[in-house]
Amino acid sequence: MTALSFTPDGKYVISGGGESASLNLAGDTSLRLWDAANGVMLRQSPPLPVRPHQLVPLPASTQIVAFGTAHESASAISVWDFASGNMGATDFADPYRFHCAAIATASGTLIAAGHDGISELRVEGGSVSVARQFSTPSGNVVRAFAMCLQRAKPLLMAATKAGDEHVVELIDLETSSSSGRLTGFAGPVISVAATVDGSVIAARSTELIDSSKPEGAAADFVTIWDGASLERRHRIGPLAPARPSLCLTSDGQRLLTIGASASAGEPDEPQSAVLFETSTGKEVCRFQTGSRFLTTVAIGPDDRRAAIADADGQVVLCDLP
């Protein structure tokens, strides 16, 4: 399982995955619709051409947009109506254009980012078209991003590079210009999350912590900022490197991410999803599916439930404290 999302009303969870990022060995790439109340699977989509890495539900709609890429330099965008079960036409974008991240706006358009910069996409019926494209002020690849749409000036927070420095660029969506940067990362930022009003921002980065070893020793860190002052609140870690999954509750008070991996001394230890308080940086609790490898996490829109997916194909629903 590589992609997971709650629907905007919180009634359903949609998951997707596959065995490989290869076109020929992708395996079961179908999307699945689950009842968020009882975990019962309700519907399954036709297979996607590539393994999805992100699912973006459209607001006030029963459509979900699946983004996927394959090793063979192919990327695809598919639209599935989970109410009717109909799958729209798949758009094969330029190689790796949308390989990183995508977010839906309140108007139903999508903002997607990848090697070609940032694109605003329009979904009409079961097809996707490009409304406009722009680059980050630095002109570099965007690895991950979040959006704050309830600010006076909506912001896009893009994980990228400025020269040799890893940064989170704050981009004014109206002018496509920079309005600030979050800095201080010693390695690439792999995931960004923010509240819709921008009051809390979090980013997960992978950093080298032991350069004396032949291949180095990497660890992940989660950094939390105050969105108004852009002052750093807390730095959580080191965490064992994991899939770039990070999400905040709607009020920004708690953060869910994938925690420590199984250690070499305890190879059968299951991996955990960890809930932190953003005001203190302290751990609240941990969730496990029983698998050694978690792939992605999501929090429902009412902040009461979380969904956790693992490499064994399971989706586990948890009540948040």
3D structure, described in words:
A four-stranded antiparallel β-sheet has the order 1-2-3-4, with no helix packed on it. Strand 26 and strand 27 (315-319) form a beta hairpin. The radius of gyration is 19 Å and the shape is globular. The relative contact order is 0.11. The chain has no helices and 27 strands. The protein folds into three domains: 1-134, YVTN repeat-like/Quinoprotein amine dehydrogenase (Methylamine Dehydrogenase, Chain H, 7 Propeller), CATH 2.130.10.10; 151-241, no CATH class; 244-321, Thrombin, subunit H. It is an all-beta fold. It has strands at 3-6, 12-16, 32-35, 41-44, 52-57, 63-70, 74-81, 91-93, 101-104, 110-114, 117-124, 127-134, 144-148, 155-162, 165-172, 178-185, 189-194, 200-208, 218-226, 232-239, 246-248, 254-258, 273-277, 283-287, 294-299, 305-310, 315-319.
